[in-house]
């Protein structure tokens, strides 16, 4: 369901962009003999043959120099926070100090990687060198030429093998919460925040996961929910937009499990227990407290924006306190004075990888700041927190 992020690292002119093009079979990355052509990480979403849905990331050279070069290298290193699998290029049978420092960073971040000796049309990989590196680092070592395509098919097989090892870690959204032929009702509001002509990503991901379970997905708006329930429509599980918790809860009998897309993502991203502990602290906020809102996507804010408008207003109304809010969007740096915040509230995180989200939250946890997320905060303030998180306790006990 989730796209695997695969990044290509290497020195300038080691053939990173050429390798991206060779893997995809299209000219999507700019290729030049001029060192430093790739200046920022470039992401390309693709269906990679034999692998599936991935995001391929082309990066600047690890040996870039000068003031701007240092910034480019820093941005390349930042990619480590989102990568599921790294491809580290080297040439001329030489894995130098730059590459070895990068290997150390990959190992420190627990990022699986493949060593690829590129430009084999110019200098072939020495068999002994390849075996030595494979044994020393316990990784696959491949040889290819991004220019003439030699070895690309085999490299794709090696990538697929490594991805399949990682695949079990990319768990299903719903897991054992739903069985074949059961009906999951999804309540999806169509308001000014809804993208024109499409559903938001968590809704699409959930529908796909339901179908993968051979179950039935019923998707409707909140205005259609009463007639569906009163008409005897089946519902073995109901998942709603978090903003509608109060309304939806009135129409769903107590014996039917109810949660939201955001709470579902909180569990799926592996941060559920932290949010579970931090959310009730909403009741302890005091006048003058600051709350940090982490909005992991970037979009144009509107008067109905959940993170910037609705959630802060709801918290002020719920607590009756004078609370200030700060919003950090996308993957922008967190405020330096994290200790000044009484609570941090994270969005569902549908647009970022689990690795990115955990890296960001790690900084918050290091400061001992309580955490919540949009859905869990809204369910708590709607008085149905226990019901919204109940479907996940069965999964946690298994």
Key descriptive features of the protein:
18% strand, Rossmann fold, 4-stranded parallel β-sheet, 6-stranded mixed β-sheet, 15 helices, 36% helix
Write a compact overview of the structure shown.
The chain is an alpha/beta fold and 398 residues long.
Structure classification: alpha/beta
| Portion in beta strands | 15-25%
Mean of pLDDT = 87
- Return the domain count: 3
| Uncertain ranges | none
Distance between the termini: 22 Å
Largest β-sheet summary: 6 strands, mixed
CATH class of the largest domain: Alpha Beta
CATH architecture classification name of the largest domain? 3-Layer(aba) Sandwich
SS summary, helix count:
15
Helix fraction bin: 25-40%
| Estimated radius of gyration | 24 Å
The helix-strand sequence is EHEEHEHEHEHEHEHEHEHHEHEEHEHHH
CATH superfamily of the largest domain: P-loop containing nucleotide triphosphate hydrolases
The CATH topology of the largest domain is what? Rossmann fold
Number of strands: 14
- Largest sheet strand order: 2-3-1-4-5-6
Shape assignment: globular
Overview of the structural elements:
- It contains 15 helices and 14 strands.
- With 398 residues, the chain is α/β, with parallel strands linked by helices.
- The two termini are 22 Å apart.
- It has three domains: 4-169, Rossmann fold, CATH 3.40.50.300; 175-264, 3-Layer(aba) Sandwich (Rossmann fold); 273-381, Rossmann fold.
- The mean pLDDT is 87.
- Helix 12 links the parallel strand 13 and strand 14 (371-373).
């Amino acid at each position: 369901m989730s796209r695997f992020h695969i990044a290509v690292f290497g020195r300038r002119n080691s053939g990173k962009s050429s390798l991206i093009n060779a893997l995809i079979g299209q000219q999507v990355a700019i290729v030049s003999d001029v060192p430093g052509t790739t200046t920022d990480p470039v992401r390309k979403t693709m269906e990679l043959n034999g692998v599936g849905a991935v995001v391929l990331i082309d990066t600047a050279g690890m040996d870039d120099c000068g003031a701007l070069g240092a910034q480019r290298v820093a941005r390349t290193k930042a990619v480590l926070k989102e990568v599921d699998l790294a491809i580290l290029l080297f040439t001329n049978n030489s894995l130098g100090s730059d590459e070895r420092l990068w290997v150390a960073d990959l190992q420190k971040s627990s990022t699986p990687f493949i060593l690829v000796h590129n430009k084999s049309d110019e200098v072939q990989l020495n068999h002994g060198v390849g075996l030595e590196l494979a044994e020393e680092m316990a990784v696959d070592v491949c040889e290819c030429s991004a220019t003439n395509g030699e070895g690309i098919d085999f490299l794709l097989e090696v990538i697929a093998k490594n991805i399949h090892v990682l695949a079990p870690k990319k768990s299903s959204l719903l897991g054992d919460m739903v069985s074949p032929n059961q009906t999951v009702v999804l309540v999806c509001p169509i308001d000014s925040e809804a993208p024109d002509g499409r559903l938001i990503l968590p809704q699409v991901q959930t529908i796909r996961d339901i179908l993968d379970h051979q179950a039935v997905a019923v998707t409707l708006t909140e205005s259609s929910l009463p007639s569906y329930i009163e008409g005897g429509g089946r519902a073995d599980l109901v998942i709603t937009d978090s903003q509608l918790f109060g309304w939806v809860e009135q129409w769903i009998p107590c014996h039917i499990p109810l949660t939201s897309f955001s709470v579902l993502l909180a569990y799926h991203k592996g941060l559920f227990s932290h949010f579970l502990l931090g959310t009730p602290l909403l009741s302890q906020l005091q006048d003058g407290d600051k709350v940090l809102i982490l909005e992991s996507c970037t979009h144009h804010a509107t008067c109905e924006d959940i993170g910037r408008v609705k959630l802060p207003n709801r918290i002020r109304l719920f607590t009756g306190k004078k609370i200030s809010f700060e919003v950090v969007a996308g993957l922008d740096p967190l405020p330096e004075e994290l200790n000044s915040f009484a609570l941090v509230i994270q969005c569902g995180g549908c647009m970022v990888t689990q690795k990115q989200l955990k890296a960001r939250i790690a900084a918050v946890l290091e400061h001992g700041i309580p955490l919540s997320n949009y859905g869990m905060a809204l369910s708590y303030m709607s008085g149905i927190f226990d019901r919204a998180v109940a479907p996940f306790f069965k999964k946690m006990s298994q």
